[in-house]
Design brief:
Layout lengths: L15 E7 L1 H4 L6 E4 L2 E6 L9 H12 L14 E3 L6 E3 L6 H11 L4 E6 L5 E2 L7 E6 L1 H5 L10 H15 L2 E6 L3 H5 L5 E4 L7 E3 L2
Parallel strand pairs: 6-9, 8-10
Antiparallel strand pairs: 1-3, 2-3, 4-5, 7-8, 8-11, 9-10
């Protein structure tokens, strides 16, 4: 498995907690959306799907990658902005952009051949943490879509969805696996690889 471009990213959750912790009584006086986190409460903000990068920023990334530069971009998922319909100017919003979805978006826009999502687990698993757990070696997008209930929204879900989205839009490949096994993943010896040219509903598990 060889790629001229790939985007390594770390994991991120869909419901993002930010700031200090509060008691239940304190949280009720905040005026923000809060969520219980263990014994305490924390403020949460939405994590919307990224649509596109700001034009001039994307142009800079495109020129650098075309010059064979390694570009670190969309750190932390990027700073979320929207265009004001009245002024046409961008303005910031209270949100957090998921890193994996941002990487898939940028990769597709750059016509990248592959997307590499690095995390803290060996690969994507069916029935993760259960006696019936199976590590997935490779799969088609359609096969993974049928297993979406196995991938929690706050952890592996966004990674799998980002991999599927990238492969379907680009026709390339995406891989998910451990940061410590990046070289093995690129060699096809570790992680979970999603291919666009596999038969529908094709899935292979590690023995």
């Amino acid at each position: 498995m060889v790629a001229t471009r790939f985007l390594p990213v770390s994991f991120n959750s869909c419901n993002v907690t930010i700031g200090p912790i509060y008691t239940k009584e304190e949280s009720e006086q905040l005026g923000y959306t809060v969520k219980q986190d263990g014994e305490h409460f924390r403020r949460v903000v939405p994590s919307p799907l990224p649509m596109k990068m700001v034009d001039h920023q994307f142009l800079a990334i495109q020129r650098l990658t075309d010059s064979n530069c390694v570009v670190i971009c969309a750190g932390g998922g990027g700073i979320p902005v929207v265009r004001d319909p009245n002024t046409g100017k961008y303005k910031g919003i209270e949100a957090v952009i998921d890193k994996d979805r941002a990487a898939a978006m940028v990769g597709s826009a750059l016509n990248a051949q592959g997307l590499l999502i690095l995390t803290d687990v060996t690969a994507v698993a069916k029935d993760f943490g259960k006696p019936s757990q199976q590590w997935i070696k490779s799969a088609s997008p359609s096969a993974l879509k049928k297993l979406t209930g196995h991938f929690p929204a706050g952890s592996m879900g966004p990674k799998v969805e980002s991999a599927i989205d990238f492969v379907e839009k680009s026709g390339g490949w995406a891989a998910i696996g451990s940061l410590n096994e990046a070289e093995e993943i690129m060699a096809g010896e570790a992680g979970t690889v999603v291919y666009s040219d596999t038969p529908d509903d094709c899935i292979e598990y590690y023995e």
